[in-house]
Amino acid sequence: MTNSIEEIEHTEMILAIGTNTTENHPVIGAKVKRAVRQRGAKLLVIDPREIALTKYADLWLRQKPGTDVAVLNGLMNVIIAEKLYAADYVKDRTEGFEALKKVVENYTPTYVEGITGIPADDLKKAARLYAGAGRASILYAMGLTQHITGTDNVKSVANLAMLCGNIGIEGGGVNPLRGQNNVQGACDMGGLPVSLPAYQPVANDEARGRFEKAWGVTLPPRPGLTVVEIMNAAHKGDVRGLYIMGENPMLSDPDLAHVEAALKHLDFLVVQDIFLNETAQLADVVLPSAAFAEKDGTFTNTERRVQRIRKAVSPPGQARTDWEIIAGIASRMGYPMSYRDAEEIMAEIARVTPSYAGITYERIEREGLQWPCPTLDHPGTRFLHKEKFSRGLGLFHAIEYIPPAELPDREYPLILSTGRVLYHYHTGTMTRLAEGPSERCPESLIEIHPEDARAYGIADGQKVRVASRRGQVEAKAQVTEKSPAGTIFMNFHFREVAVNLLTNAALDPIGKIPEYKVCAVKVEAA
Amino acid sequence: MSSVPLNIDGRDLIGKPGQTILEVARENGIFIPTLCHYTGTTNVGACRVCVVEVENARSLVASCCMPISPGMVVRTDTPKVRASQRMIVELLWSSGDHNCLTCEQNGACELQDLVYWLKIDHPRFAIQPPGHPVETTNTMIQRDLNKCVLCGRCIRACNEIQVNEVLDFSMRGSHAKVGPAFDADYIDSECVFCGECVNVCPTGAITFKQARFSGRPWDMKKVRTTCAYCGVGCQIELNVHDGRVIKVTGNREFGQPNQGSLCVKGRFGMDFIHHPSRLTVPLIRKKKGGELTEATWDEALDLIAKKFKALKKQHGPDSIAGLCSARCTNEENYLFQKFMRAVVGTNSVDHCARL
Lengths: 526, 355
Ligand code: SF4
Ligand code: SF4
Ligand code: SF4
What we know:
The complex is a heterodimer. By secondary structure, chain A is of the alpha/beta class. Chain A folds into 4 domains: 5-177, Dimethylsulfoxide Reductase, domain 2 (3-Layer(aba) Sandwich); 179-224 and 291-376, Rossmann fold (3-Layer(aba) Sandwich), CATH 3.40.50.740; 227-288, Dimethylsulfoxide Reductase, domain 2 (3-Layer(aba) Sandwich), CATH 3.40.228; 414-525, Barwin-like endoglucanases, CATH 2.40.40. The two termini of chain A are 43 Å apart. Chain B folds into 4 domains: 4-77, Ubiquitin-like (UB roll); 131-274, Alpha-Beta Plaits (2-Layer Sandwich); 279-315, no CATH class; 316-355, no CATH class. Helix content of chain B is 24%, strand content 18%. Chain B has 8 helices and 16 strands. In chain B, strand 3 and strand 4 form a beta hairpin. At the A-B interface, helix 3, helix 11, helix 13, strand 9 and strand 10 of A face strand 10, strand 11, helix 6, strand 13 and helix 7 of B. Strand 11 (285-288) of chain A pairs antiparallel with strand 13 of chain B, so a sheet runs across the interface. The complex binds iron/sulfur cluster (3 copies). The site of one iron/sulfur cluster has 14 residues of chain B, from helix 4 and helix 5.
């Protein structure tokens, strides 16, 4: 997030696009609802699904899945045509406006209505609502990113925010809500094939040189492979050994049949986890690790706040913390790693990661610090880009709308969109063992619109089969108007209804994010 | 005017305009008991436990609702105040089933504390609990409205803090009751089991069902940590007893990002920690197609080192890849990528951030 969670409650206007906040980030959802109910904030929801936030919204735009760029360009079209944008901000702090203007000129409300299904008048109202606010915060999540145009979508919301002068101010910003507790931290720490800690590019000689000195080795300059590329390389035999720590690609990755074949093709698979999950079952070595309640360390939340976790109980049996295991393997491979505790590792992180340089366990004992926190006396950063953008001027990206990779056709006439439900989390390995959440949500349901249910002769609660070009699954139907006609919605928490047997591994070319929000399927009674 | 002079219990104090008597008293370390008051929600002045005497006022006033005014003279500890508080507390006590012997909140109950503080031996009224059936229809939250003092905190927490808009009063007068619409049980309502109402209830009327009989409040070691689920990073308290996590509570003193609020996953999603299906020993598959069998740490780690070294030698470092985790700590992710880059020698390290 460019801004802080706290600010959401005190802003004038919230635009929620592609985030089912009350289910996926419930505590932020509560802040949005409080802002609306108690502080008079305006709320604009842009989502194909009738999520709970639509009840609190001043206006809800229901676009066809995968048409976000068109919607956002349409909003900017109106804002520019009606001169509602922050002209001074655009002049002083940004560049590329003319190119943007030229592209969005074509996205008139009527043209956009044709692509997105949003009535032209609603689009105009929405544009005025957003541009009319003194401070507006944009919230988004996987609903925006899990498309082949995910990167375009994100750039487009940034365009919109800059156009109205909403970046670099309190209560404004472009705020991705991260799905998993430490996605932010895993990226910050260099868990990416292109970058070392703090997003220092591996291909940059100077950056790499610093780490070579700190770690006492020479480092490979060529960027590595992403998850999906790793699976493809394993399939081809280019990747032969795979070390997986705390992930379950056998349920979370797109096109599972392909993932399974890839993993089985490996010479050597090591899985380190708290459970013998689907991926671990294929491993050559399985290492038992400690859960979050059994170790010390830090997580970095979605607002860049580095916060402590603390050991409350002992790990079961012989389970060890992940860092102890990694250090054990490294040492056996001739590179001794010896750390007294997690705190000592954090001290090393602070030395090589400029944005974490001022962070110590002592400082975050009572309250987490938000990076960038470059020095020991720096108070942390509540919102980014205050006086200037990281690159100097904010750059507008002129972006054209591209339709999703796989659209419905005669054989596969429906769109499948996937996501989460309140009571479960990711691949369900943790929440499905929880009695309470499982009582509230015991099984995977396929949400289908009454019109489609009628067309395919499906009754509420009836078992149905959903098939795509890649596979099929069965589950009970829930007939509801939550998703628009022509679109069904499923979650990915249940291994017995592994929805990623259906999804399309088509990737966003830059973000390499699979298109989980749109693929073509057919539905029939099972 | 930016400061309001007033006198509480003989002390000359300065308050800010718009503050209540209660707020100024608390700021200055003067104790006034409360029950229905809950900071951050509407002041309703319903229980009247917080009454004080204000000079020239005709009757006692509820300090939680009364704004201060210049020159106000307040007494919090007169016999009249105490008599009134005793009357209220004795009525509450006698109109419920406050059997502390088996109550989960014994030792952490605001009603119990009030009784003790007011030095009440017995209520002067006959004890007549309303006879509500205990609600045990879900596994997460148990409600025993016989212990409810109708303070309305659960209602305000649900509507004003979580804005879930599930709870309200039903009926009036002596039949008054709190709960979801149409007197439904939580499980049959729109309740999303955030547990905020449990956290704010001053008595044992709403409790964590799975934690029942697993440890008294004073047994619990509370360990502050960060929730393991979504990216909000809520600060939570693991309540630990006998080496087990018994329940999860929120704590408003921890401040941002969640100010004590949680959702169902953070609150009730922690069963996995002690689940019997946890991995407890390293496992090795001796030959392809064979079974996974138990091994020692030395065997497992030696095997990994040997295999990775051999692959690296034969096929180069890029024949090995690694997936770190959005669920592991910063320290572990840092070390993992350091291992892949510095020890294996490849940049093929990624995680499922995008999924
Ligand atoms: S658990 Fe949450 S949603 Fe349910 S009644 Fe209590 S406060 Fe409301
Ligand atoms: S259930 Fe608890 S919080 Fe709710 S009104 Fe009764 S005593 Fe107050
Ligand atoms: S308690 Fe809920 S909202 Fe808070 S971090 Fe955990 S999962 Fe997210």
